[in-house]
Amino acid sequence: MLCEAVCGLTVDVETRSVRGDPDDPFSRGHICPKAAAIFDVQDDADRIREPQRREGDAFRAISWKAALEQAGARIAEVQRKYGRNAVGVYLGNPSVHSYAALLATPLFNRAMGTRSRFSATSVDQLPAMLASLEMFGHQLLLPIPDVDRTSFFLMLGANPLASNGSLMTAGGISRRLDELKKRGGELVVVDPRRTETAQEATRYLPIRPGTDALLLLAMLHVLFAEQRVGLGHLKPFTDGLPLLQEAAQRFPPERVAARTGIGANEIRKLARDFAAAPSAVAYGRVGTCTQAFGGLTSWLIVALNAVTGNLDREGGFLFTTPAADLIDLASRTRDRGHFGVWKSRVRGLPEFGGELPAATLAEEIDTEGDGRIRALVTFAGNPVLSTPNGARLDRALSKLDFMVSIDLYRNETTRHANLILPTSFGFERDHYDLAFYALAVRNAARYARPLVRPPRGVRGDFEVLLDLAMSVRRHGGGKRGRGLGLTLRASRLLGARRVLDLMLRFGPHRLSLRKLLKNPHGIDLGPLRPQLPGRLGTRDKRIALAPKLFLDDLGRLEASLSEKPNGLVLIGRRALRSNNSWMHNSHRLVKGPPGCVLYMHPEDAAARGVVAGGNATVESRVGKVEVPVALTDDLFRGVVSLPHGWGHAREGAALSVARAHPGASLNDLTDEQAIDALSGNAAFSGIPVTVRKV
Ligand SMILES: Nc1nc2c(c(=O)[nH]1)N[C@H]1C(S)=C(S)[C@@H](COP(=O)(O)OP(=O)(O)OC[C@H]3O[C@@H](n4cnc5c(=O)[nH]c(N)nc54)[C@H](O)[C@@H]3O)O[C@H]1N2
Ligand SMILES: Nc1nc2c(c(=O)[nH]1)N[C@H]1C(S)=C(S)[C@@H](COP(=O)(O)OP(=O)(O)OC[C@H]3O[C@@H](n4cnc5c(=O)[nH]c(N)nc54)[C@H](O)[C@@H]3O)O[C@H]1N2
Ligand SMILES: [Mo]
Q: Is the pLDDT of residue 333 over 80?
């Protein structure tokens, strides 16, 4: 319900204790500190338990009826006056952790009828989805590393020992990586920081931020030059191998070594070992997505798997067969995704799947002109702390005519709202991991009933989203059309639970909620299986190995080869006892040494007179923060690291624990102008900064 690892939990409601469920066939008893903190959020005194309306600087409780009326009327008014696009929508990360929200948001978006849509996708996995759209014809068709059967795991820009794994749903990832090593396999980690995961690796390759695409092209160069390329069973339905070869020819290892920081021999050895392994998988995550070449890197990762015969092969990179199959449903409704069909108003950035990059949200609010965003709906998000140049967005939000937020808290973002609508959370609602079984390393399914009653003043995410949409339409806003009105009302009547049940019944494993309820520990549906070309979303059921979109971006990459490193660059990190921006109000997660600390290489620190334990200022083009410093050799020279999700000192948020452990926001330093020019995704990695001793 808040983590991609979807671990089975044993819960004692009386004592508020949460333990790992040893009988869960998927997670086998694994648990992490975040799960134990679910009750901290659920029982949090700061949690919002009734709709709140802002009156001046104060918030007062109002009834649901009044709140929905007012929200609908104000949003409709803005849309009637200024057009539908004058209302923006931002969906945060937890909207994919609640199956009810996941089912309601597409309907909500359709009903609002606005093109000013944003989400956490464009500060996260958008480039990986773009690669899937271009190569497999479906934005949701993401291949997953077969960690349990692979013999060579090449991991770039991911730290699952802290994150529990992402786009790789796997309860107990550290055990799974241990097992890989025990069976004689290799774990190679490529990261500018020797992370918790890198420390467990059999090989660690420190890399300069933002240069993974160069490394991957050089690996491909070696494989083509040494005739180690073989598409295997993909051959009859894969196009573009010669084009990929041509591209790779431009990037011999010697040409990229200095820029990446990885020696040519090291690159050759890595390429050979990867190709020679009985099975291998290359996988990248936040570090390969949220950087200036996120699109290229995501494409090349898939390409490397494909040309070594590891795509759609056991032990390699495979597609899932989830019991409730959103991918198949999207295909049936012909919504496989699209890219660049329209552009943002101010900067001309491309839409992806109907959403614009979050990096452009602030300027769409604070730039005058036709189509300016004047009202905003946020759902389960905190973009002030989580999107680039959050401080600018913070200022922009205060200029809105109207804002409504659906959230558990009055946080750094929702404090700007005129209305906050609170929803149920945790064990108060039923649970099924609709999104994450589609990303799991084994096929599995588990459904959990609610264990406790929600507070009287909150409602379900599904209900709130649909009720708000209906209220907007009643007041003459949103998209018109009788069909849409009927769909909204019918869905509201049916409820999320029944929609889920139907999806399970018509899904590939013919399950149902009844069957799942009979198996409360969850059902194992077996390992991932090859399923190409059948699963492809492309009309001709062929894979595009070298889409033009990516080939056209290679010139930009090539130009980066001549960049000379100069000064320090900033990257982010995650910690096990922290969850994006919203769990710092849990005592048990923030106790102990401070989490928001700048990591610095001792030589970089010495050159600036910065000492361990002292404070330093970090300054970028957009802002400046002051943070404590820790020194560590585990960093690429010239790179400093700060975790994201902190910065809780802002006036007006109601997070009393977090406020006592505020930290500084990494996104007061990241730059909304720093994006992957191809995809529009935020480029958090490699922000030039100046560090000074305080
Ligand atoms: N405890 C905890 N768990 C979480 C979260 C959390 O906040 N806390 N957040 C959840 C969410 S929303 C997500 S998306 C996942 C993310 O899951 P992961 O991607 O596994 O987690 P990160 O720690 O962000 O790992 C990114 C790594 O990329 C490295 N990196 C930075 N720049 C580059 C680069 O240019 N190249 C390479 N090769 N590496 C680079 C960083 O040093 C870092 O180690 O975690 C999820 N799980
Ligand atoms: N610099 C930098 N920035 C980053 C990242 C990074 O690595 N570096 N990581 C990025 C990534 S991967 C992500 S996913 C984003 C996350 O960015 P966001 O999604 O914008 O923010 P979160 O911190 O996840 O905040 C989630 C909010 O949802 C609320 N919430 C939780 N559960 C529910 C629920 O069930 N219903 C409702 N209605 N509300 C709920 C919480 O109270 C909280 O206010 O941050 C991104 N920002
Ligand atoms: Mo994320």
A: no
Q: Rounded to an integer, what distance in angstroms lies between the CA atom of residue 254 and that of residue 231?
A: 26
**329 pLDDT tier (thresholds 50, 70, 90):** confident
pLDDT of residue 328: 87
Confidence of residue 332 (pLDDT cuts 50, 70, 90): confident
Q: Atom 3 (ligand 1): residue with closest C-alpha?
A: 163
Ligand 1 atom with least separation from CA of 577: 1
Q: CB 688: neighbour CB atoms within 10 A?
A: 16
Amino acid (one-letter) located at 448: A
What three-state secondary structure class fits 58? strand
Q: Which of 21-35, 139-153, 299-313 has the lowest mean pLDDT?
A: 21-35
| CB neighbour list of residue 242: distance below 8 Å, 6 or more residues apart | none
Cis peptide before 533 (omega within 30 of 0): yes
Task: With a cut of 80, say whether residue 73 has pLDDT above it.
Answer: yes
In angstroms, the CA 579 to CA 573 distance is 11
| For the chain, percent of residues with pLDDT exceeding 90 | 97
Tokens 């409602």 sit at which residue? 459
Ligand 1 mean position to 288 CA, how many Å?
9
Write the single-letter amino acid at 681. Answer: N
Cα–Cα distance measured from residue 31 to residue 9, given in angstroms and rounded to the nearest whole number: 8
Rounded to two decimals, the pTM is 0.98
Report CA 502 to chain centroid distance, whole Å.
27
- CA angle, corner 206, sides to 203 and 208, nearest 5? 155
Mutational pocket test of ligand 2: of 408, 434, 570, the residue with most ligand atoms within 8 Å of the beta carbon: 408
CA dihedral 526, 530, 534, 540 (to 10 degrees): 150
State residue 330's pLDDT score. Answer: 83
Q: Residue 160 is encoded by which pair of tokens?
A: 């699952």
Helix axes 461-474, 64-82, angle to 10 degrees: 50
User: Do the Cβ atoms of 664 and 626 come closer than 8 Å?
Assistant: yes
Residues across the chain: 694
Residue whose structure tokens are 């898939």: 302
- Mapped onto helix, strand or coil, the DSSP state of residue 403 is strand
| Dihedral pair phi/psi, residue 406, rounded to 5° | -105, 110
The protein residue whose alpha carbon is closest to atom 46 in ligand 2 is: 386
Our separate counts of H helices and E strands in the chain read 27, 29
Q: What is the predicted pLDDT for the residue at 567?
A: 95
Which domains, and CATH codes, for the chain?
A: 126-322+537-556 (3.40.228.10), 562-693 (2.40.40.20)
Kindly state the tokens that stand for 213.
């695409």
Structure tokens at 348: 């001309």
Indicate the top mutation candidate among 96, 124, 159, 194 to test ligand 1's pocket, ranked by most ligand atoms within 8 A of CB: 159
296, two tokens: 């290229």
Tokens 């890989």, located at residue: 180
Give residues with Cβ within 8 angstroms of 544, minimum separation 6: 134, 135, 239, 240, 538
